[in-house]
Amino acid sequence: MSALHALIVIDPQVDFCPGGALAVADGHSIMPHINAMMPAFDKVFITQDWHPEGHSSFASQHAGATPYSMIDMSYGPQTLWPDHCIAGSAGAAFHPDLNTDLAVAIIRKGMNPEVDSYSAFFENDRTTTTGLGDLLRAHDVASVTLVGLATDFCVAWSALDAAKLGFNVAVELKACRAIDLDGSLDQAFDAMRSAGVTLKH
Ligand code: VGL
Ligand code: ZN
């Protein structure tokens, strides 16, 4: 029997909140909402964006490039970001308002210097797995609800991969905040709807 419902909290980290290196507007405000949701789920998983210094997704590593511009990497187009979520740094820590006590596991991603990883399931090469899909199955999880930061990048990519892997997927938008670069939020909504992801308001 595989019928459990997991909450997957995506990248609820200091650097994605106001004052952080890659601040998402109002990002901190989702933390109390996520805390309140956790007890209603069978299992809770949390992801943590966790990059080495000099990661290839940082604009600082590409001569003349500015943050939020795009480049072509060997694995496809990649947005360049400000340096953020350096492994072990204060900015990579979970936001202090988040209660992490109920988490079954913390999945770190983005550690390969050459490849970014928006999704909690696969790196941006779309093939290297983080192991989360198998871990969820080992925990008898069939349905997942995603919350966290940012709606249009790591939450959306994770939701699309979860649907591709055969999980029932919902995104609780009250507990998400977006970056919204050049229409990325509307694109993410369209892609998630087309993939059968339930968007909850
Ligand atoms: C994220 C950009 C770079 C996210 C992570 O969590 O949405 N976005 N790294
Ligand atoms: Zn990142």
TrEMBL record:
Residues 6-198 form the Isochorismatase-like domain. It holds the Pfam family Isochorismatase. Pathway: Cofactor biosynthesis; nicotinate biosynthesis; nicotinate from nicotinamide: step 1/1. Keywords: Hydrolase, Metal-binding, Pyridine nucleotide biosynthesis. GO terms for biological process: pyridine nucleotide biosynthetic process. GO terms for molecular function: metal ion binding; nicotinamidase activity. Its EC number is 3.5.1.19. The keyword tRNA processing does not apply. InterPro entries: Isochorismatase-like_dom (IPR000868), Isochorismatase-like_sf (IPR036380), Isochorismatase_Nicotinamidase (IPR052347). It is an enzyme of class 3 (hydrolase). NCBIfam families: PRK11609.1. Belongs to the isochorismatase family. This is Nicotinamidase.
